Amino acid sequence: MPDKRTALRERPFIGPRLDVGKVMANLVLPLAGVVAALAFGAVMLLLLKADPIAAYAALVQGAVGSTFGLTQCLVKATPLLLVGSGICIAFRANVINIGGEGQIILGALAGAALPLAFPQAPAWAIIPATCLAGFLAGAFWGFIPGILKARLKVNEILSTIMLNAIALQLMNLLLQGPLMDAEGVARGTFLHQSAQLPRQSWLPRLVPQTLLHSGVIIAVAVAILCYAFLWKTAIGFNIRAVGLNPKAARYSGINVPFYEALSLTLAGGLAGLAGVIEVIGVQHRLMPGLTSNYGFTGIVAALLGALHPIGLIPASVFFGGLLVGADKMQRAVQVPSSLITAILGLIVLFVSSATIWARRWMAHRDTATALRADRAARGAEARDGSCPDPIGGES
After folding, report:
1. What is the pTM of this model?
2. How far apart are CA 170 and CA 191, in angstroms?
3. Taking the CB of residue 351, how many other CB atoms lie within 10 A of it?
4. What is the distance between the alpha carbons of residues 234 and 190, in angstroms, rounded to a whole number?
5. How far apart are CA 300 and CA 71, in angstroms?
6. Which value, to the nearest 10 degrees, does the dihedral of the CA atoms of residues 348, 349, 351, 353 take?
7. In the chain, how long is the greatest CA-to-CA distance?
8. What is the pLDDT of residues 267-326, one digit of tens each?
9. Which residues of 59-95 are buried (b: 16+ CB within 10 A; e: fewer)?
10. Residues 6+ apart with CB under 8 A from 146
């Protein structure tokens, strides 16, 4: 009688099977969290005597009802996609990067300082150099909590949050001093903003009369490269191994602290790239409020995209649409801006909860499946009258 395990190995491959549980965990549950958050938002609108149907219709109309709305969705999605790509790398190594706001600011500082220092540099040189400078500045700001965690076991959540405050105060200091617009000072306005960047440092516009710039192409390319990095390279494999089981990774010879620090450094670099692209693509000068909470919203976009760089692309566009449509909803139904913040906060809460529950459910399902397979194998061996031998044969 042929060995059943041999028969299973020799069974012809009939193609990949759809893992319904994984689809539920990575797609359906996060989307259900978004729907639940919008349902709670509708209740809040009713309490404010506003029509939820009209409010959400205005939200959709503002996001996709015009060329301007569609392009603005992509403009808002660009920094979310870059920050979220870094979040995917960090979370895959089981470290949490809450420092996106500060890293965006450091990237924006570098993105403004370099073109202002070299106003005559040609576009082919200054744009790549500025992007690289922003990436390196953000990477440095991410390296600090990374090395603190690797060497001193400092909690990265606390260190990244505190670095956000330091970066904000650093920007305010520079905008009141060396980077303040000299023309504004001469006119007596003393606005806390830098001078306008040289035109050759601006990213090209993709659609005339809109703010859509070529940074969106860079962001999509970065997301694809992050996927290739995490799933097609040895370094990416080590990062994911550290995130899945640090003890097993350490036992197999992987330097766990190094890859934790590396993931935070790369996450900071991508957030810094988001900051520099926001400066040279949209604002064309450094000013307060540049981050627009992209550092925090990018975390939720990454969670909605199942911490996968490719899934992050539609998730970022979705959140970009929410940010754009929320402005029209506020004007259409006359609700306070704090309600829009509350609805976005509900989405954060429900999507995060759905993601955590999905992970636990998947872990429980995989464990149960492994136990059932083990019991089935033991039962088959008992029926065949054989038992496994310690050195791999049968007795």
Report:
1. 0.84
2. 16
3. 24
4. 52
5. 21
6. 150
7. 95
8. 999 999 999 999 999 999 999 888 888 998 899 889 888 889 999 999 999 889 988 888
9. beebbeeeeebbbbbbbbbbbbbbbbbbbbbbbbbbb
10. 95, 156, 260, 261, 262, 263, 264, 265, 268
